[in-house]
């Protein structure tokens, strides 16, 4: 059970009124329950295993790109931005796309890299201006902090208001400034970073600083925070798939913190998400490494002296290949690329799929690994 100090006061909450009384972090009187401490130890153990695996990768960018693409799709799905695997990976294969869903998904991927670079450029700090740049990259516009009243979150089924975030720009900026300090100043809290991550995620969503893109920005902040805290060497852990599968609980528990100060259940949810996602991500990376090794062995036999390690890398960076992509990457001339893809198709390493006038050659076994939630 959540333990409160005698001075702890639950702020009055009215879902129809801007929640300008949203308290700053850390929550007054919060004490970790025994179940949180048990779950925390488990989460730390699995996260350490994943980080060790990432540190051992000879070329982590090869695998990270594919994992980020899959996360981009899952995170966007939470916001009901839907795109097919085909549209997403066609776009990633430098085709461009008219599909708005695929464009937003790829913008999410771009935003993650932008945030990681910006954090490292700013002495490992996660700042408000980085959050703004994240949402601008996601939305591909010049969006800024909400500066007009009227924002309210509504139930998708009955249209009733479930939460009205703080208003307006000055108050929102004040709350983001306090959140920024909580993220970056270790003296503000001695709490474990994984518990702090749960606090930070709730607080950002409760502030709801942007007109759109808050959910995706908040989920990118999770990954960046884990890197900032040296818990992961690479941003490969994303909770979107877990949230998609437990979406109702996610929103209900966010409301439960706001309305009842129920931090215990929210933190348990986030730690459970970390545990399950970390285990699955570790299994996926191991399966991808095994598949890559098998493919390398087969390709050296099939392609002989023309074997190209750059082609193998591309297969595990962009699972949908086409002749033009190989040519544009300066890996081979068109005739050689065509011959390679035919041989790999005949060996069932890649599978062709005609889309319009273009034939894509799909690393289908990699796609099975990426899309699986039960390895």
- Tell me the β content: under 5%
Helical fraction equals 55-70%
Euclidean distance between termini CA atoms: 34 Å
Give the overall form. elongated
Structural class: mainly alpha
Number of domains: 2
Average pLDDT reading: 87
Based on CA atoms alone, the radius of gyration comes out at 22 Å
- Total strands: 5
What is the helix tally? 15
Low-confidence stretches: 1-10
User: Per CATH, what is the topology of the largest domain?
Assistant: Fic-like fold
| CATH top level class name of the largest domain | Mainly Alpha
Encode the helix/strand succession as letters: HHHHHEEHHHHHHHEHHEEH
Largest sheet: 3 strands, antiparallel
- Name the CATH superfamily assignment of the largest domain: Fido-like domain
- Please give the CATH architecture of the largest domain: Orthogonal Bundle
In spatial order, strands of the major sheet run 3-5-4
Salient structural properties:
two-stranded antiparallel sheet; 375 residues; Arc Repressor Mutant, subunit A; mainly alpha; Fic-like fold; disordered N terminus
Description:
With 375 residues, this protein is mainly alpha-helical. It folds into two domains: 34-283, Orthogonal Bundle (Fic-like fold); 287-371, Arc Repressor Mutant, subunit A (Orthogonal Bundle), CATH 1.10.10.10. The protein is built from 15 helices and five strands. The strands form two sheets. A three-stranded antiparallel sheet has the order 3-5-4. Helix 6 runs antiparallel to helix 7. The relative contact order is 0.14. The model is unreliable at 1-10 (pLDDT under 50).
């Amino acid at each position: 059970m959540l333990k409160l100090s005698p001075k702890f006061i639950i702020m009055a909450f009215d879902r129809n009124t801007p929640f300008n009384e949203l308290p700053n972090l850390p929550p007054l009187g919060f004490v970790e329950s025994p179940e949180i401490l048990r779950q925390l130890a488990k989460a730390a153990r699995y996260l350490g295993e994943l980080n060790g695996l990432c540190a051992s990768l000879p070329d982590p960018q090869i695998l990270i790109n594919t994992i980020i693409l899959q996360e981009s799709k899952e995170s966007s799905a939470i916001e009901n931005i839907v795109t097919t695997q085909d549209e997403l990976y066609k776009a990633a294969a430098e085709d461009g796309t008219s599909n708005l869903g695929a464009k937003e998904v790829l913008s999410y991927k771009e935003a993650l890299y932008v945030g990681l670079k910006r954090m490292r450029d700013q002495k490992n700090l996660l700042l408000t201006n980085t959050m703004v740049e994240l949402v601008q990259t996601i939305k591909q516009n010049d969006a800024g902090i909400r500066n007009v009243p009227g924002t309210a979150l509504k139930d998708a089924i009955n249209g009733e208001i479930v939460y009205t975030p703080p208003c307006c720009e000055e108050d929102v900026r004040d709350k983001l400034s306090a959140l920024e300090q909580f993220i970056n100043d270790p003296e503000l809290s001695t709490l474990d970073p994984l518990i702090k991550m749960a606090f930070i995620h709730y607080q950002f969503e409760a502030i709801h600083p942007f007109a759109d893109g808050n959910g995706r920005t908040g989920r990118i902040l999770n990954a960046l925070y884990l890197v900032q805290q040296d818990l992961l060497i690479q941003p490969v852990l994303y909770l979107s798939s877990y949230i998609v599968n437990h979406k109702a609980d996610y929103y209900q528990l966010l409301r439960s913190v706001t309305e009842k100060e129920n931090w215990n259940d929210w933190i348990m949810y986030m730690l459970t998400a970390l545990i399950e996602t970390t285990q699955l991500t570790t299994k996926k990376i191991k399966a991808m490494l095994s598949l890559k090794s098998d493919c390398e062995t087969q390709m050296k036999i099939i392609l002989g002296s023309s074997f190209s390690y750059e082609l193998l890398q591309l297969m595990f960076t962009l699972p949908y290949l086409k002749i033009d992509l190989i040519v544009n990457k300066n890996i081979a001339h068109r005739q050689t690329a065509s011959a390679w893809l035919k041989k790999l198709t005949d060996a069932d390493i890649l599978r062709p799929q005609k889309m319009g006038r273009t034939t894509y050659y799909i690393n289908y076994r990699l796609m099975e690994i990426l899309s699986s939630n039960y390895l």
